[in-house]
Queue: 2 jobs
Job 1
Amino acid sequence: MLTVEKANLHYGAAQALRGISLAAEMGKITCVLGRNGVGKSSLLRAITGQHPLSAGTVTFNDVKLDGMAPYNRAKHGIGYVPQGREIFPLLSVKENLESGYAPVKRSERFIPNEIFSLFPVLQSMLGRRGGDLSGGQQQQLAIGRALVTRPKILVLDEPTEGIQPSIIKDIGRAIKYLRDSTGMAILLVEQYLDFCRELADHVYIMDRGEIVHQGAAETLDTQEARRHLTV
Ligand SMILES: Nc1ncnc2c1ncn2[C@@H]1O[C@H](COP(=O)(O)OP(=O)(O)OP(=O)(O)O)[C@@H](O)[C@H]1O
Ligand SMILES: [Mg+2]
């Protein structure tokens, strides 16, 4: 299980996270909802090690991650799908997937077939340049690249952003499949309430750097959630 406790994060004098505490359990989909600029990506940067916390801790399966470099966190099983996908545009689809080899043992340096069953389009486009894929295909590639690292927790930053509905469905199916078949933890950051409600086991709502509401997905007060999601 991943736990974040009383996390503060600053960019210079500006505070982006204010005492955030949350947990993402193995075999569950945990969703963090919040509108633009409330600190969702900052939270994921703190978890993946791209920005230090100014107070608080991040723990994954009893290992304290504070101060650990991002590549070491990847070795501990943190898989990351960044906002905007961050595909290497000039590398092929195959090379993009292979960039996920860095944190894994030599014996595991192959692309699991499961990735092509989840996203067949990647197999048919292995030789194509990443930058020539559509937004939705790039999103599938970014998830595939994270899966190559054999994560124990998959952290996704707004995977539905700017993606057409049919691919959003495919991504939703893939996320559910990963939870049910591998037992990995999934931490999903979203602004898209319906996608989150359909997938999540547990929901947190963020506003201005704080968790303002949390609970089991089936008891989520949709009106309350919408209130925090509209400007
Ligand atoms: N590198 C940075 N330097 C200074 N301020 C930053 C930096 N990155 C983010 N911020 C600020 O921190 C706050 C939280 O930003 P963050 O990117 O975490 O929000 P978000 O919830 O992910 O938003 P979005 O939904 O638009 O992706 C915002 O006010 C933002 O302007
Ligand atoms: Mg963001």
Job 2
Amino acid sequence: MSRTSTHRGRRWARRCAALATALLVLVTLPAASTADGAGGADRDRGRAKTVPGRAPADNVILLIGDGMGDAEITAARDYSVGAAGRLALDTLATTGRRTTFSVDERGRPVYVTDSAAGATAWATGRRTVNGRVSKTPGTNRPLPTLLEKARRHGYATGSVTTASVADATPAALTAHVTDRSCKGPADMAECPADTRAAGGAGSVVEQTVAARPDVLLGGGADHFAQTVTDGPYRGRTVLEQARAAGYQVVRDRAELAAARTDRPVLGLFAPDYLPVEWTGAPAAPGGTAPQRCAVRNPARPGGTPTLAESTRAALGQLTARRDRATGKGFLLQVEGASIDDRAHEADPCGQIGETLAFDRAVAVALAYAAHHPRTLVIVTADHGHATQILPDDARPAGLSTTLVTDEGGRMLLGYATAGPGGTQEHTGVTVPVAARGPLAHRVLGLRGNTELFGTVCAALGLR
Ligand SMILES: [Zn+2]
């Protein structure tokens, strides 16, 4: 949530249109050149056949661990499968790194991004100011998003998160607001130009219903319960607006499983964020007694679907909507949101539990891709976070805790980007990116996070 200030500037983005030529070349190349051509990815090589006149991929699954830098991944790996073990996300052999910086209103680099500017980067191919959602720096104009483009090209679309579906990362696909705080019609203080009264497109949830993704799963019931203040739905709740747009609304695992595939589905599984999976003692000044994490959170209702379950349900829904005539499948984004949220609170057990929940969603995506090889799977993060893995006899100045890992080791985790009672900060490190499937080789090396936009456009043939 932390923000840095704003400016404007250089155009880092790679626009979809500029890729049309490259795409024409790619579709004429042999399959092995376009399907995960990286060394070490031999098992993927050549499985997805290129078809002349057809985009390299039928489906793209983009999985975002919010605040999931290398330190957060390593802590989760060490705790669960052990230092020499491998998570599902570690099995993707084609890997690279992404810069994550945002910009100020004049376009000058700001070295630490927030989640809104981070998601805007891959959703639109453009860097923006911290806090802004899929609008330009400086001029504050809406930028076309991957989801909007995919929908216009006849793909089914979906977004799954453990946050509110109005939170910054999912919002970057479905809405354009001056500030991420403008989630519902009662939250518009920071977005005067976006209000319906001012001729704007309204709050995130109103715009999201209008963008009409086929599948939208997460929390945020409180935002949908707000009353629309202007426009054709004035005086009705956003939820009523969603129902009028054809959405079936589901509230728990059983209702999600029973959802029909001939209407869009809106899953609202919590008032705002979904309760996390694991709990434990937060890091503290001077450390804590060695602890094991509690792997059940009593505050998490039994009917709450896991991120993996929601991802599986979304894939089922989206597969049922595949266009059999054109072969066009879907674009799905999956966000593990509370890795970030728990790291802000220096809560290592909450953070690791959410990282592992995200990793199980990655496993679901990889299993799907194994049966649908024309699927590009990309796993990455929007920014790094405050976690540090320290020698177990260190006496760090900030907050810390010692976890006893599954393999019996002692792991000292430090959080020192804010003092006691403060909120831990994002960090400006590059983040890992990994991929499997058609065009996976495009994640190799160090590139800007904006380039993910061009990769997804090229994979699905979006212009
Ligand atoms: Zn954050």
